[in-house]
Amino acid sequence: VYVAHTGAGLAAGRTIRARGGVYICDTGTAHVRVHFRILREEHERLGLEPPFFEPQLVERELAEYEAADAITVPSTFVLDSFVGEGVSRNKLHLLPYGAALDVYKRSADRAGEFRVLFVGALSAQKGVHHLLEAFARARIPNSRLVLVGSVEPETPVLLARTPIRDVELTGPLARADVVDEMSRASVLVLPSIHDGFGLVVGEALACGCPVIASNQ
């Protein structure tokens, strides 16, 4: 049995099958056509440059879906995206991710202020613009928005759309520091417009942090 992540297993998978083995394609995102469509529509809505998807890589992923004996997916959102694109339900296997409970556990007391935490790339795909708008509209007393993650090309544009004062950008943090942030936070928010499986949701819950998340 040969298991490979999307984008990495086509040639070897075909070879394994030719020799009588089984090829399993593992994907962490929605069907590539759905993924591209969601991002393109959101970028258009925000007036951003269209997201770039290398045509050859798209064709490669489609070929992997076709060649594989089975496709493993991490969420019902991803599963439904494949079914919607005509992939047989019998070929799909739902395998949600888990959190490392020996690492993600409460490490600090909850902060006195109301801390809204985001962990991930500061991108349109992760819905940072929705979080900024919601935080501004909520006007929670004694609150702070903490954004943990890498700055993307569109990040300055997204931050400028909804200027807020009580926001802290930490940049990427070491895992132990992320655990501390999750332990101190009042709530973690993951407003992704596309996320195959938001692993930070389970990690935050393991740290005793409530979560608000989108369903895709």
Quick rundown:
The chain has 216 residues and is an alpha/beta fold. It is 38% helix and 17% strand.
Q: Supply Rg.
A: 19 Å
Q: What overall geometry do the principal axes of the alpha carbons give?
A: globular
Biggest pleated sheet: 5 strands, parallel
List the secondary-structure elements in sequence, H or E: EHEHHEHEEHEHEHEHE
Tell me the structural class: alpha/beta
* Order of strands in the sheet with most strands: 7-6-5-8-9
Task: Give an overview in words.
- This protein is an alpha/beta fold.
- Helices cover 38% and strands 17% of the residues.
- The chain is built from eight helices and nine strands.
- It has helices spanning 10-18, 32-46, 55-67, 76-84, 128-138, 155-161, 175-184, 199-206; strands at residues 2-5, 23-26, 70-73, 92-94, 114-119, 143-148, 167-169, 187-190, 211-213.
- A five-stranded parallel sheet has the order 7-6-5-8-9, with helices on both faces.
- Helix 5 (128-138) links the parallel strand 5 and strand 6 (143-148).
- Helix 5 (128-138) packs parallel to helix 6.
- It starts with a strand and ends with a strand.
- 31% of the residues are buried.
SSE topology sketch:
Blueprint: E1 2-5, H1 10-18, E2 23-26, H2 32-46, H3 55-67, E3 70-73, H4 76-84, E4 92-94, E5 114-119, H5 128-138, E6 143-148, H6 155-161, E7 167-169, H7 175-184, E8 187-190, H8 199-206, E9 211-213
Parallel strand pairs: 1-2, 2-3, 3-4, 5-6, 5-8, 6-7, 8-9
